[in-house]
Design goal:
Helices cover 31% and strands 35% of the residues. By secondary structure, it is an alpha+beta fold.
Length: 226
């Protein structure tokens, strides 16, 4: 097994766009002389993997390569990170993953929030117990936080305007109309922001590893193409 270490990025975008799989991607980079190949035969670590998930859409994804480049954009420096991934298997998996000790993976799927990246632990066989997070829930949380933040800014503007500009005073509250409206809008914004933070925090995909006896699984030397 060989690992591709990227040494350049800015000239590689056509390669990224055309690469159909990691092998083709690596071959193009080798031909252009833009990569360094590291022999890791002694670092291979096959692992029999079973995925136990609460939704059937969960997939194990291998990070095949990453590239980081720097560009000058709109008067400032920008860092551009591109990741090449390949699907290994889908729950319940039941396959031997031909990985190596530095391979990184993550979990995702249709409507499933991508998990944090991880390395497979040094077990001969393991079960990955997954609690899938909702991608829709996370997007709703981000939207609510954005609207809530704008509401807080709008409320603050109302209160500031009420402090410097005369406006009728509400007899019941003793506050000017602008100040009262600002407090209402700002309070609603704070509520939306907190609700969005809660949705975001509870939409993560979590997982845990559990060693198991080696199951009867099929071996695979690459990604699942089904």
């Amino acid at each position: 097994m060989r690992v591709v270490t990227l040494t350049a990025f800015l000239f590689l975008w056509p390669t990224f766009a055309r690469a159909a799989d990691s092998d083709a991607f690596a071959q193009r980079l080798v031909q252009r002389g833009l990569v360094r190949l590291v022999n890791t035969e002694g670092l291979r670590r096959p692992v029999a993997v079973v995925i136990e998930a609460d939704v059937p859409e969960v997939e194990l994804i291998h990070i095949a390569a990453e590239a980081t480049g720097h560009a000058y954009v709109s008067g400032g420096n920008a860092t551009i990170v591109t990741t090449v991934t390949e699907k290994v298997c889908r729950a319940p998996c039941n396959e031997v993953v031909e990985g190596h000790i530095s391979a990184r993976y993550f979990l995702q799927g249709d409507g499933v929030t991508p998990s944090k990246t991880f390395e497979l632990p040094p077990f001969a066989a393991l079960r990955i117990k997954v609690k899938a997070g909702s991608l829709m829930r996370r997007r709703a949380g981000v939207t609510m936080m954005t609207v809530g933040f704008l509401g807080v800014l709008g409320g603050a503007a109302f209160v500031l305007y009420g402090a410097i500009a005369p406006s009728p005073v509400e007899p019941a509250s003793g506050l000017s109309t602008n100040t009262r409206n600002g407090l209402i809008v700002g309070g609603a914004g704070i509520g939306l922001t907190l609700a969005g933070l809660f949705l975001g925090a509870t939409s993560e995909t979590s997982y845990e590893f559990e060693p198991v006896a080696a199951p009867a699984v099929k071996a695979t030397g690459g990604p699942d193409t089904t």
